[in-house]
Amino acid sequence: MHSHSGPAISRRALLIGGTVLATTTSLARVARAAPAEPNVIELTAAPGRAPIVGAPYPPTDVWCYGNRIPGPEIRVRQGERVRVVVRNQLPEDTTVHWHGIRLPNSMDGVPGLTQPPIKPGESFTYEFTPPDAGTFWYHPHADSLRQLGRGMAGAFIVEEPTAVSADRDLVWMLSDWRLTSEAQIAAGFGNAMEAAMSGRVGNTVTLNGAITDEVPVRAGERVRLRLVNSSLARIMSLRFEGHRPAIVAIDGQPCDPHEPERGRVVLGPAMRIDLMIDMQGEPGRRYRVIDDFYEGLSYWLTQLVYEDKPPLRAHHLEPSPSLPRNPLPEPDLAAAERRELRLQGGMMGGGGMMGMGGMQGMSHGASWAINGTSMTGDGHADMPPLLTLQLGRSYVLIIRNQTAWWHPMHLHGHSFRVMTRNGTAAPHRQWADTVLVPPKESVEVAFVADNPGDWMMHCHVTDHQVSGMMTVLRVV
Q: Ranges for the Plastocyanin-like domain (predicted)?
């Protein structure tokens, strides 16, 4: 399924493209003092229409925040208190999950588990102080398969106290859609056969909510590019022709700057990666950004189009510096308790179900399980914890993927250190909140259980989550 050597790439293997929302930053910009009063933001969740494909196709009927796709980009400063008033104008319940932000349990947005769902016509106020700078995002955690699949997602950027040296700071919200020939969202959410395999992978990939062929850049500039994969199921492997991007953060957490393995930036659903890219191409030329994760289905996402102007600076910049680290507690590996999570179920290559026999906790409609127990849906009251963790103690989770499919495993309320893959130490000091676990492989992650409450842990292939690959870790 996953190939690092795709076939020749056509101009369009599917409907694809991008537009850019840019925030220009000065290399010498100085941080502002955070205000004492909360930064108040209002978000309205409602049906809308968006020109996803563009002429000659009609606008697409979507569900969205702030009457736009993606939702409004929220930018705050590290340590700045935020108050977000969410109004629900959808025809059904909703919530908002602030993905990757270490916040109080009551603000986590899981219906029933951490808050009552927001009923149609009602509102809910989220208030928290992001402790970490980085790239995060927000999305529903109620009827998430349909609500996220219809467009409800937005970027949440927490800026460092002192600006990072870059000429521009760009966010690419990457979304995957299944559209009809009339550019409308196709029916069929929750297909049981599909849920037991790779999930709902679409036929259209957008960049910041639209399809276009080019992103303007200038020779000699340094761009901080924040990638967010808000897809239901699509895994991406991006290659920047003619460029050597450096990964400087994963899931909002700084890492040792390094070039991606084999030049490909791999993003599972819900994952974020910050790149520093020095634009060293030739003025007037075009360079493709290619996604070749799925064997035989390579396509180009967009093109970096160089302005026909002299380079911004005469000399190359020094290598990308490390970003300032966030105040994450270091796990005590010598004293850490080790717990195992076995990912089970799904369809095998031959068409039969895998590893489902003898699972006592299986519920109706479940295709997946963790340690023999499945939890379906998006969250509800009285979900029993799979593990009870002691507040302040260090833990190592051994995540064993016993299935034939990829799983981006996300833990709410915490970030963890990725320690090993298949027993080999992970390079580049990686912290994350969503770790992509390939078929038949294992990953070890370590963290301090320092945030009390009942926290969801689930696969972020949304079909997998709602059909059983979800559990709760209780920190007391």
A: 59-161, 169-287, 377-475
Structure tokens belonging to residue 259: 């070039």
**Which residue do the tokens 């796709």 mark?**
69
Report pLDDT for 202: 95
Phi and psi for 464 in degrees, rounded to 5?
-65, -45
The single-letter code of the amino acid at 240 is F
Contact 387, 474 (CB under 8 A): yes
Secondary structure letter of residue 330 according to DSSP: P
Instruction: State whether the Cα torsion 127-131-137-139 is positive or negative.
Output: negative
Pairwise CA distance, residues 400 & 444, whole Å: 9
Joined together, the tokens standing for residue 1 give 């399924």
Q: Which has the closest alpha carbon to 247: 263, 268, 269?
A: 263
CB atoms inside a 10 Å sphere around CB 328: 19
Q: Is the pLDDT of residue 35 over 90?
A: no
Determine how many CB atoms are found less than 10 A away from the CB of residue 55. 6
The residues pairing with 247 across neighbouring beta strands, listed in sequence order, are 258, 275
Find the distance separating the first CA and the last CA of the chain, reported in whole Å.
Answer: 41
Lowest-confidence region among 11-15, 34-38, 49-53, 246-250: 11-15
Please identify which residue in the block is written with the tokens 């790779």. 198
Chain segment 257-274, per-residue pLDDT in tens:
999 999 999 999 999 999
Give Cα 20 to chain centroid, integer Å.
18
Closest CA to 370 of 407, 406, 343: 343
CA distance 418 to 27: 32
181: which residues sit within 8 A by CB, 6+ positions away? none
Q: Is 175 left (phi over 0), alpha (psi -120 to 50) or beta?
A: beta
Domains of the chain: 26-159 (2.60.40.420), 168-306 (2.60.40.420), 337-475 (2.60.40.420)
Residue 332 DSSP label: -
Q: Spell out the residues 6+ positions from residue 49 whose beta carbon is closer than 8 angstroms to its own.
A: 59, 60, 61, 62
∠ CA 266-272-274, nearest 5°, is 90
Q: Are 86 and 124 in contact (CB under 8 A)?
A: yes
DSSP state of 220: T
- Burial class from Cβ neighbours inside 10 Å (0-12, 13-18, 19+) for residue 284 reads exposed
